[in-house]
Structures are given as C-alpha cells and as structure tokens.
Amino acid sequence: MELNQWVDELFEVFDEDNDGVINRSEFVELIDVLLQEKGIRMCETIFNQFDKNHSNSISKEELKEMVIELAL
C-alpha cells in the first residue's frame, strides 16, 4: 500500500468526528494502536512534536510527517 493511501485511511479511521483534523483524544487512540500502548506521556510528547502549528489538532499533512518519521 502506498504511503499516501495508508495515511488517508488512517486519517479517515481516527478522525472520528469527521472535522478534517485529528484532535487530542483521537490522537491518543491512534498512537495507542500504532505504538501498542506505550503510555499517555509518550502520546502527549508525540502530539506536541507533530502539532507544528500548535492548533491542538493534527492535520493530514502533520500525520503524514509523523508516520514517515515514526514508522519508516
């Protein structure tokens, strides 16, 4: 599966309220799935690292950057 397609699918699954961004609680669920329950502190640290514009949400582009950095 191509990276963009994978990120699109991840985004659709975890943007539960379909508002076009992944909010903090949705992000915690995403990280829980991706990192296999490594803890809330890690989620907070990662969220803050990838929420580049400090909007308290993760855009699709920010998610793509996160996936590239953490998963590849």
From TrEMBL:
Gene3D superfamilies, sorted: EF-hand (1.10.238.10)
InterPro entries cross-referenced by the UniProt entry: EF-hand-dom_pair (IPR011992), EF_Hand_1_Ca_BS (IPR018247), EF_hand_dom (IPR002048)
Domain spans labelled EF-hand: 2-37, 38-72
Source species, domain of life: Bacteria
A molecular-function term among this protein's GO annotations: calcium ion binding
Regions crossing the membrane: none
Pfam families: EF-hand_1, EF-hand_5
SUPFAM superfamilies: EF-hand
Protein's UniProt name: EF-hand domain-containing protein
Native source species: Thalassomonas viridans
